[in-house]
Amino acid sequence: MKDFKAGRVRLLSGPLKKRFDLNKQYIMSLTHENLLRNFYLESGLWSYSGNGGTTSATTTSLDGPEQWHWGWESPTCELRGHIMGHWLSAAAHVYVQTDDPLVKAKADYIVSELARCQEANGGEWLAAFPETYMYRIAKGKFVWAPHYTIHKLLMGLYEMYVIAGNELALRVMSGIASWFHRWTVSFTQEQMDDLLDLETGGILETWADLYGVTQDPKHLELIRKYDRRRFFDALLEGQDVLTNKHANTQIPEILGAARVYEVTGEERYREIVEAFWKCAVTDRGYVATGAGDNGELWMPTGDMSARLGVGQEHCCNYNMMRLAHTLLRWTGEASYADYWERRFYNGVLAHQHGETGMISYFLGIGAGSHKHWGSPTQHFWCCHGTLMQANASYETSAFMQEEGSIAICQWLPSELDSEMEGSPIRLRIEQEGQYGLYPLNNWSVEGMHMITKVHVPPIPVHRPDRFIYNLTLSIQQAKMFTLKLRLPWWLSNNPVITVNDGELVQKIGEKSCFVKLTREWKDGDTVRVELPKSLVAESLPGESGTYAFLDGPILLAGLTGDDRMLIGDPQQPGSMLVPDRERNHSWWNPGYFRTKGIDNGFRFVPLYEITDEKYAVYFSIQPQYQAT
Q1: pTM for this prediction
Q2: Is 417 exposed, middle or buried (0-12, 13-18, 19+ CB in 10 A)?
Q3: Alpha helices of 44-145 — where are they, by DSSP H?
């Protein structure tokens, strides 16, 4: 499969677009002065001395410390500058989604100022910290992840080039690469191996990105230098080099190997990626969110019950989604799209505060879990950055293309605007929010019509048991091609697929696959897709009597701070949970349940709706035996 060009897919109005807009507002609220401040400082273009030693001047000003970025972006933090790269990546995606000239102007200005900083540094080096950090780590002294920080900057510059069309960003990126080529050229293999045992982030990926554009032999040499053989070779040998290791380090390195495979075609790198996925996901398993990590470390294979601590980390969630999307592109296997979907609903959406747009670094799932939210300018954790990226770009996974076909990989309300054999084509995915379920739905004009008009078909008496999508095709000329629809892992029964309100596609008895609709498609053709779901209980790896509940793809959180036991049959979750508050005014509430049959019952809501409440995701279930 192949991705469509950036900007070809856009979100439609609705709950996800509101989340996107919330993220855009936050991105644009960060001033260029603060984003650039540490780069100016290191290049000698700015300094601050408070009141300059006088006794009459005030220390408070519009440019004083109380206005600056703090936390991991403070001038005293060794990781300073990482947010710049995240911001550039997010801004590039936001721009192609919205065509907002203010976003483009701000991002272009920032790139031009980074180029000015680079020139002041001598034309190559560019970072928010001094070159001495690199010389210190080369001598074996500890510095907090300078490679990681440089990678974020390089990724942001690359995406400003390939997505937003900023040519200067590529030149700045090439200058940084020249510095690293000179710096590493004399290192032995053992010296490089020792350097790569520090957290290098995805810098291998950005060298591959750059080589894919320039084909410069020096950039290929950087790829060779940054091949982490100690890690990669162990994976190829089938060793578990993940358990209790830093997932935040390893996942970006694998994304680097994946990109090297794509730009060089060398099979070793694909084998590394496949070995990693087998070790990290297939063999290891995961908790109900899709995570195999807790507190940034990989949990033991198949035995995670003793690791329900602070929970999964957002950067791991985001980067595993990127890797799943890459493997989907390589293989066309729906299981990778299923994994992406699980981590989208129960990761990306659950880590973001639905009202403020802020990030929860970790996402706990044990008893008494609580989301701890970052602030707009006082924390700037790594997850602050991937929050901006994730919520600026998830529409890119909705559609993919193959020769003679268009695939719907994620059921996100969105619109594809592309071409088929030179003819313009537009395909819309609209989600039905009254006759079907619509996650995150809220007040809408459509909902108001449904509760006021009596001459329209009535909505279901109770909460629907399915998701419903309406596809509409606009095309200038009739074309023969295949429309591939993903049937997700959570299907509870056969999907119902109708073409043009009449032709019923034969029943499909499978899930986690693509169904193919091949025909001559005409302008105005429609496809209606109904995907039935049910409430299911999913066991915790390593503890068979402990379960989480999912309503289709939506993971539920129990509103309790205590470790509670439920009584019933996990194969029949309805023996323990019943629908609760199923409708609010003019919309349905998917994932709302309450317990039954126990004292001091409590409610369940989707994990992505939790803000400040204490909650739990996993519960022990005691079977209920009837007296004979």
Answers
A1: 0.96
A2: middle
A3: 82-98, 101-120, 132-138
